[in-house]
Amino acid sequence: MILSLILVPAAAGVAAFLIRSSLLLRVLLAAVGLFHIIFTAKAWLIRPQPALGGWLAADAPGLIFLSLVSVLFLAAAVYGAGYLKGEPSGERMDFEEGDLFSNAPEARFVGCLLFFLATMTAACLSRHFGLFWVATEATTLSSAPLIFFHRHHRSLEATWKYLLICSVGIALALLGNSFLAAAGPGLPMDLDGLLAQAARLNRTWLKGAFLLFLIGYGTKMGLAPLHTWLPDAHSESPSLVSALLSGALLNCSFLGILRLQQVLSAAGEAAFGQELLVIFGLMSMGVAAAFVQGQGDYKRMLAYSSVEHMGVLALGVGLGSAGAFGAMLHAVNHSVIKAMLFLVAGNILSVYKTKSALEVRGALRILPLSGALWLAGLLAISGSPPFGAFLSEFVILKAALDQGQILVAVFYLIFLAMVFVGMATTVLGMALGDASRSPHKEGWSRTFPPAILAACSLLLGIHIPEPLRAALKTTAHVVLQQGG
Amino acid sequence: MSVPSLVHMAIAMITAPLIFGIINRTKSLFGGREGPPLLQQYFDIAKLLQKGTVYSRTTSWVFRAGPVIGLACVLIALALLPLGPLPALCSFPGDFIVMIGLLAVMRFFTMLAAIDAGSSFEGMGASREATFSALAEPALFLCFAAISQKAASLSLSDMFLRHSGDATHGSAPAPALLAVALFVVFLAENARIPVDDPNTHLELTMIHEVMALDYGGPDLAFIFYASALKLWILGALVVNVVLSGIESAWAVLAGLFFLAIIVGAVESTMARLKLLRVPQLLIGAGALAMLTLIVAMG
Amino acid sequence: MSSWIELAVLFLILSNFALLGASRVTTLIQVAAGQGILLGLLPLLAHAKQGNLRLIAVALIAGLLKGVIFPVMLGRALREANIRREVEPFVGYSLSLILGVFALACSFWIASRLPATALFLSRKALPAAFSTILTGFFMIVARRKALTQVLGYLVLENGIYLFSISLGQKIPFAVELGVLLDVFVAVFVMGIAMFHINREFDHLDVGQLSALKD
In chain A, how many domains are there? Predict the structure, then answer.
């Protein structure tokens, strides 16, 4: 059951490389997405048996992130059908530099997407630190070709930076694994084994391991100042890939940090990890708040917003159990909204043929549905009621105040406000204003997925389903459960 | 002050110029020539000592003092040098610092004298000498530090004696690294290939020779003799490290002559390095010495 | 046996200096290959008596990958790219070497600060691992070519591998193979990316990859 969640997308990925018909490829993509979401939903109802001797199991945090991967992948797959149809084959002009470029073969794109799904699933489900590392590095490798779908200078540069910075960062996490092994010589490296023996772990090695995890997986997660690859990769990759990178992949890396925080807490050293998370969290928010101001490229703006929200996640976990609940809820909200925003950005990009926010005017008139979603997305991502992000950001704020961390709360609010102002200026300018062209007819496959995601975000703001609430609570509890 | 030490000192003072003869003979053999007699350096020095000197009117007392101070420094340094089982004439904790200091004073006055001559070529030589010795000296220091760390002693005689007793069960590669580092320093300090070419009198390629361009007569003889002694001192250090553990003074002496043959072989088979690559070589030697030091501490 | 291990570890440290001071890309590839082979041999030296089949298999695969396959791949990339064979560093060779010495001293300091643990190879293996990791980092940051950056990544991996074997860590076979597979695919994908960089820009100079910034 668990294995099939990983193996089926992987097998489909291999098959995709052999398929010539582009129609078949798009059907395959959607079918695998559908299969994945059905099996994930089933896992919510009946927790599946662990596989590989307990190395792969669907625990609460894993299941939450797995569901996000699954939902976003299906949305991206449906969106992708319309997107790939709109992509011309053969050489064409690059609208930014005027050079000729062509797309990578579609089979390669779809195959890598499916591998990407398989590796992200493996990362979400693995409870063994070695296996988690293998899966996370594999996500980097399978997603790098996706960024290089449009084969021009800038996407190549983004791919190279992504590949190198993330690989080097993750290599540090591998060193962290070795530190963890040194902390408890002879202990198994799976989560249960380490939690059971947490009191016996050597504190210095364990702290070193956490530091390396934070730097290593933090690079992949986009925590400042290790985020430098993120805006480039997100702005240059096709929009559905950006949606998956931002909404699903960043969470997977965060899971690595969460898992070690769990061990750290069990060893009675939770405060060490939490302080670091607060520092990195606020730093990421601050950097993002600075770079969002006057950001001329709207996809880069969304990327910096991701950096900001990853900072919110780290900060939330740093603020104790209530904050961790808020952070997990925020992870869900952020993934849904950010994926939606990237998909809409793709629609805007394909009509206006520019990524400069200054040259996009009157999106509401030309693209009525996408324009409306774009505006709604702004409200949702900046934490306005009644969207879900309002609730989660409020929970984190309350956690900070309850802890008496007034300074943290003040900075948190300042950065949130700065990001709101920065994004609102850009987004409003794009949505409003007079348009010189006639309205554009949008295909359903490119508006339906973002619309559904927006609806999800709205629903989450009004009511959190009971199973999800329980899973969030469990996660917040286990991550910071003190022991030893 | 023991008799063997005095004998060592006497041997060094008598045989040092012979080392030059051996190097030159080796080079000639490699080049297929017969070459100068082994004792050529003695003849040169004797000839120069009989001549008078001419000083340029632009020079001051610094120019005249240079060779004398240089020779004096190197003679005192020789008194601090142990050779194999023979202890130094005088030895005290920290004498290796004095030895490096004496070599530095010698170099300092040679450079000052070169600048005093007022010729642009000599100034250039002095500047290069300053650059390279600034890199060679730390390497030498690190070498000594490594040896003294290993032998847990601060005086040269003790260092080499105890070092030799230790070598049987110490980690094998460390002395080899040290010997390589010292050998590079030895080549650089004595202005041999690949750092400097002692044969050319092209001002653009040489460092040490160019600083002696304006000397003649007894002054030049002093310079020749001082550089022969310096070669002896640094060579003895290399040989001491390589042959540590050997009790016979004759073997060490033979090692010194063998070193001269190696130098000759190196000079015949290698080209001089580009000036820009020389610092790299010296830093590499320093890195090796540092590594040995760390290994000795660890 | 232990003196052989000492010698191998010392050679690893020396190879780091060679990587910092070498001016030709081919030399870099050869030195990295030598490092890989040494790393493949180290566990064999340490375990010669026990003859654990699983361990020997992993060591052989790792040595083969790091010592033979990667260098051959990178050597081919170098030939195909037909680029200038000089390293063209951002930071000069001499300064690199000085920094290398400094990094080595730091490595020994860090290793001395870490709590004692059951060490498997020699006491110098941990500092050697740290200095290899730092050398890899330095090569990624301070060298101009995409190829040297990949080499830096490999050297970094070598350091981490040395770290893990010097702890005598009992990693499950599957995970160890997975890690090696990941590194292999990483180098492979980087090789493809280098091919494209060379085709698009006619060189492998990452200093020119600077269109994307804020």
Answer: 1
Q: Which chain C residues have a beta carbon less than 8 Å from that of A182?
A: 117, 167, 169
Q: Which domain holds residue A109?
A: 2-479
Physical contact, A and B (3 or more Cβ pairs within 8 A): no
Average of per-residue pLDDT values in chain A: 93
C213 is a domain residue:
no
Q: Which residue has the higher pLDDT, A72 or C195?
A: A72
B284 closest CB neighbour out of C6, C21, C108: C21
Partners of C130 on chain B (C-beta within 8 Å) are none
B129: CB partners within 8 A, 6+ apart: B107, B110, B111, B114, B207, B208, B211
| A268 φ/ψ angles, rounded to the nearest 5 degrees | 85, 20
CA distance C65 to chain B (A): 28
Q: Per residue in A349-399, pLDDT tens?
A: 989 889 999 889 888 989 999 999 999 999 999 988 889 999 999 999 999
Helix (H) or strand (E) holding A311: helix A298-318
The answer to whether residue C158 is domain-embedded is: yes
C94: closest CA of chain A, how far (Å): 25
Decide if B177 and C100 are in contact by the 8 Å CB cutoff: no
Pairwise CA distance, residues A87 & A81, whole Å: 10
Closest CB to B171 among C3, C21, C101: C3
**Chains that contact A by 3+ CB pairs under 8 Å?**
C
DSSP string, B22-61: HHHHHHHHHHT---S-TTHHHHHHHHHHHS-----TT--H
pLDDT digits 0-9 by tens, C102-128: 999 999 898 888 887 666 667 788 899
Question: Domain tally for chain C?
Answer: 1
Polymer length in residues for chain C: 214
Domain that holds residue C30: 2-208
pLDDT per residue as tens digits for the range C54-107: 888 888 999 999 999 999 999 998 888 777 678 878 888 889 999 998 999 999
Is residue C196 included in any domain, yes or no? yes
In a domain, A315, yes or no: yes
Q: Is C22 inside a domain boundary?
A: yes
The tokens for B72 are 């004096």
Instruction: Calculate how close chain C gets to A394, using CA atoms only, in Å.
Output: 31
Q: Would the ipTM clear 0.90, i.e. be above it?
A: yes
